[in-house]
Amino acid sequence: MAHAATVDEHATNTGIDNRKLLMWLFLASECLFFGGLIGTYLLYRNSSIEGPYPTDRVIDGVAYSGLFDIPFTSISAFVLLMSSVTMVLALSAIQRNDRRGLQIWLAATALLGMTFLAGQAFEFTEFYNEGLTLNSNLFGTTFFVLTGFHGAHVSVGVLILLSLWIMARRGRITSENALNVELAGLYWHFVDVVWIVIFTLVYLLQ
Amino acid sequence: MASIAIERPIPTLGQALRQMREAGGSYQGIWSWLTTVDHKRIGVMYGATAMFFFVVGGIEALIIRLQLARPESTLVDADQFNRLFTMHGTTMVFLVIMPLSAAFFNLVIPLMIGARDVAFPRLNAFSYWMFLFGGMLMMASFFTGNPAGSFLEGHLGAPDGGWFGYAPLTLNQFSPGTGIDYWAFGLLILGIASMAGGFNFAVTIINMRAPGMTFFRMPVFVWMTLVTSFLIIFAMPIITVALFQILFDRLFGANFFNVGAGGTPLLWQHMFWLFGHPEVYILILPAMGIISEVLPTFSKKPLFGYPFVVFSGIAIAFMSWGVWAHHMYTTGLGSVANSAFGISTLLIGVPTGIKVFNWLATLWGGSISFKTPLLFAVGFIAMFTIGGLTGVMHSIVPTDYQQQDTYFVVAHFHQVLVGGSLFGLFAGVYYWFPKFSGKFMSEKLGQLHFWTMFAGFNLTFQPMMIVGLMGMIRRTSTYEADLGYGLWNMMSTVGAFLIAFSVFVFLVNVVVSMRSGKQAGDDPWDGRTLEWSMSSPPPVYNFATIPEVKSLDPVWHDKYVENEAGETVPVVAGAANGHKEEGHEEEGHSVHLPSPSIIPLIASIGPPILAAGFIYWDNPWMLPLIPVGAVILLVGVFAWALEPTTE
């Protein structure tokens, strides 16, 4: 498999490996998937006719305190951002054929990803306890579906990272099939970038 | 030579592959079909399955036409009528025209670009199985009817919200039962199938062309496949989001389209048509590609204005993203938005018109042989032009206000989808049948098929134009006698049965020709593109030696040269026949073949089970289907990743 990948790289018209091109096209397609979800959230921003609301507001003399905890979410966004750094380190390690470095950085990336997921689970629980559900209002519907699908993508990413980690521990990843790590990295960075967009548009911009 | 890099010894092979190799590709057992990753076989499976669904969708159309043949008919009630036209539309779009196009992508693209297979053979098989199971899931909804009545007497359980599935008609309030859930999950699964195909063919065409096959030496059909693949890649995620939204509303009480919570059903229309308008070009561009191959071959001339045909195809694809709201003029978007979308819709007629003129110029002055493929291609030009012109009429906002929701619209889109897409696809069947079966289709039956279909088609849809302009409303199960629609509708119904007859003739033709068709030889039409350089049917490995391409229409240039007087003359026999593929000469020669695999089939069993679990998730007996389906999918994906393969 390792050998096949390197041979194919020279055989393609563009010089880009088939699998890498597939990943780029897939991510391009994903842009429209998240574009649809984010667009829906923005369309319905401030359209909820009953609480809870994302930010503090006073409606008809009644004060509602907002659900968003920006410092908390900033930290979990930072955690996810850092996981991109460790992902880069993992790839660079295996490209130098540093198998031990690969294991460490893959594990670190997966752990950071899981930390982010734990933060999301905590946030969802908090919001739920405050009365925000999928059916409570438009905010609940659009928020949970958007961030939920993002969380599902992160979970898939963690699964991929853990699989790679197990392969790496068994010594099945070398500098020759580092492409596997690179593909996982592309996906992981994409999921990370999407979160930056969501964090900016959903949490920060009010 | 670049091809050497692809040839490498075959590693551990499954038994099926060994058998296939030993039998020289003629091994036909059931396992060979279930595990196949050969693009030609997958193409055949796509085609056969789509024809089955075509018959199903056709029967639905015939019931609709019987109901409408006479005023105040009671053959089916309004509810059943809704379900029939919903399933007719959904079936024909997603289970017939798209997979028929996919059948041609699979059969022809690798041969045309000089590749041994697609970039991802197992993904290709996965794409087919997902299509099959998605279609079956959707069809299963018919059998979930109201238990109070029998299947024939009671209400069918099929979806009833139209192929466009407008909210709030598709919400629980107006569409109780599970029909819409089956529809939405079916479309999600079909969407995955289409996207897998889109990714695969985009990568294949970008990365796996033979040496010398530059982008502007690619046949137009390859170009249109590339453009269609990109449309699929970008359009499908949008409908995926919309379908998830409607499912969240229906299954879990979310508020996306709930007016009571401040939502707007118009969101659905925007999402659906933002997908839906590129989708109509996904349906038509492959057919345009096919006739761009058929017309030059049967007029013995190169395609007129090749770059114009290619670039107008690309232009159509880009512009298709800016016209969606012409489906929504009457929803109250305001005159600025309506005018903008009216203009963009008028503009998209320009590249389309360029194509039509180039096709006509290709025929002009050619030595035309009116074989069945060309009849369908010329029929395409005529019928598609009428469809296109009625489309231009719809782009004019005040005109469209009058035509909205009338049979004029129904006539328009059947004109482009049947008179256009389907005619183009039939041209492709008659054109490439000899390549994949080694036999001609009967020309007599072919001519009968074309003329009955052409007559039936016009008899069905031209009267619809008239009743549409008279004001007959579509999606309504009946009409009153004194409205004066009766005669026109009777004509349409007679026409519909004539089309049904023509399809019957076609199916007979396929069976008869497979059994006792005239031997076709390798290059029966004096073809121009690489697939005609190889034996009919092509060997499993396609090309023993990857060809080197030096021009557009390479096979034509191997056969003909221009003499000093500027006339086209055949090349002297034996000279410079560079592309002639001697298929059997290299038997035993080490050619890389992707190993057969059962894993795509296993992985694709997961999603429909998962879907069934979600449809009935409030039933504790059905809920376990969710983990079962998820585990099957997950095991399939891991097995896929770890399977030793030569791909």
Features:
heterodimer, A: 206 residues, mainly alpha, Four Helix Bundle (Hemerythrin (Met), subunit A), two-stranded antiparallel sheet, 6 helices, 2 strands, elongated, B: 647 residues, 62% helix, 1% strand
Compact summary:
The complex is a heterodimer of chains A (206) and B (647). By secondary structure, chain A is mainly alpha-helical.
Provide an overview of this structure.
The complex is a heterodimer of chains A (206) and B (647). By secondary structure, chain A is an all-alpha fold. Chain A has a two-stranded antiparallel ribbon. Chain A has helices spanning 2-11, 18-43, 70-95, 99-129, 138-169, 179-204; strands spanning 57-59, 62-64. Residues 1-10 of chain A have low confidence and may be disordered. In chain A, helix 2 (18-43) packs antiparallel against helix 5, helix 3 runs antiparallel to helix 6 and helix 5 (138-169) runs antiparallel to helix 6. Chain A is elongated, with a radius of gyration of 20 Å. Chain A has a single domain (2-204), classed as Cytochrome c oxidase, subunit III, four-helix bundle (Four Helix Bundle (Hemerythrin (Met), subunit A)), CATH 1.20.120. Chain A starts with a helix and ends with a helix. Chain A contains 6 helices and 2 strands; from the N terminus they run H-H-E-E-H-H-H-H. Chain B is mostly helical. In chain B, 62% of the residues lie in helices and 1% in strands. Chain B is built from 18 helices and 2 strands. A two-stranded antiparallel sheet of chain B has the order 1-2. In chain B, helix 5 runs parallel beside helix 17 (599-615). Residues 1-13, 149-154 and 581-589 of chain B have low confidence and may be disordered.
